[in-house]
Write a structure and sequence with these properties.
Blueprint: H1 5-18, H2 20-33, H3 39-48, H4 50-55, H5 69-72, H6 74-92, H7 97-105, H8 109-116, H9 120-131, H10 135-159, H11 161-191
């Protein structure tokens, strides 16, 4: 399937803003539990799976990251992340760009492991297949909204220092839900269709 850039950005922003309260609460809970051994593994996996949950069009739970199912995926999660890191390290030696392209190609692998229960290597292959021909769209869908948020904040800063500071604060708060919403939109269109 071929992604449409503007449709992906618009759908992602809508998903992110729709799930905004739950994303904030889950983020705060994750920060609070990061210091608790073993529980932090489940909550970290839960955070990584938020785009898949957002893509399902069901409401996102305020305590989604505490789902015990995530601790069952402990091994597969670390295997797929480890394989991604091992594959991208040599690519970084080739002037960073190949590693970024590889990161986009494998960007759906963790979600495929957690949501569709694929084996780690199969998830990497499937992610590469799903993103083939869409890498530029995925790149711009991730970069343009963040860039736009901070351009608006920069303009606010040029108008008035306090307005700019406020807009930067709002921008920082909006970046994560918008980015997760875009990831959910990409996952839904490429992996769920």
């Amino acid at each position: 399937m071929k992604l449409d850039l503007m449709e992906t950005i618009q759908g992602g922003i809508q998903r992110g803003l729709k799930s905004f309260p739950a994303l904030i609460v889950n983020g705060i809970l994750w920060v609070l539990t990061i210091w608790i051994p073993y529980l932090n593994v489940g909550t970290t996996i839960g955070m990584a799976n938020l785009p898949a949950k957002m893509a399902s069009d069901e409401g996102l739970s305020m305590t989604e990251i505490f789902n015990p199912e995530y601790r069952k995926s402990f091994g597969e999660f670390f295997i797929v992340v480890g394989l991604m890191v091992m594959g991208m390290l040599p690519a970084y030696l080739l002037m960073i760009v190949p590693a970024y392209v590889l990161g986009i190609a494998w960007s759906l692998a963790v979600l495929l492991v957690l949501d569709q229960k694929l084996e780690p290597l199969a998830a990497l292959r499937k992610s590469n297949e799903l993103t083939y021909g869409n890498k530029w769209t995925i790149f711009f869908a991730n970069v343009l909204p963040v860039f736009a948020i901070f351009v608006v904040a920069g303009i606010g800063m040029a108008i008035h220092e306090y307005l700019g500071g406020f807009l930067y604060f709002v921008g920082i708060i909006l970046v994560t839900p918008v980015s997760l919403g875009i990831a959910a939109e990409i996952y839904k269109k490429l992996a769920k269709s």
